[in-house]
Amino acid sequence: MARPKIPRRIECHPPASCFKPNGVPISQLARVELAPDELEALRLVDQLGLQQQQAALQMQVSRQTLANLVKAARFKVVDCLLHQKALYIQSMDIDPSD
Fold first, then answer.
1. pTM of the predicted model as reported, rounded to 2 decimal places
2. Of 21, 57, 76, 90, which one's alpha carbon is 20 to 30 angstroms from that of 43?
């Protein structure tokens, strides 16, 4: 039995959206999904320029988990850019008790 996933602190809550190459119908594109925690990891490290340790503390995860999230997210983004795939950003269910 797998360990339960520990909740992560995510401050960026974009609506669900899709980015795709121009001129290609969405029905002809492969779909790649970027999870909310992957997007948050990219935002903290690449957009805000935080060190991985600082970003991990902000997300309340280990540095290794943060590094894994950044690596997976970068792979997905580059894969979509190079191979003309649609990149879907998953929406996040926000808990009103937060």
1. 0.85
2. 21
CB 84 within 8 A of CB 29: yes
Query: Which residue's entry shows tokens 């060190």?
Result: 51
- Name the residue with tokens 């280990």: 62
Strand partners, 87: 19, 32
CA-closest candidate to residue 8, choices 46, 45, 37, 39: 37
Tell me the C-alpha distance between 40 and 79, whole Å.
19
Q: Domain containing 50 — which CATH number? A: 1.10.10
3-state secondary structure the chain: CCCCCCCCCCCCCCCCEEECCCCCCHHHCCEEEECHHHHHHHHHHHHCCCCHHHHHHHHCCCHHHHHHHHHHHHHHHHHHHHHCCEEEECCCCCCCCC
Q: Give the model confidence (pLDDT) of 57-91 as tens digits.
A: 999 999 999 999 999 999 999 999 999 999 999 88
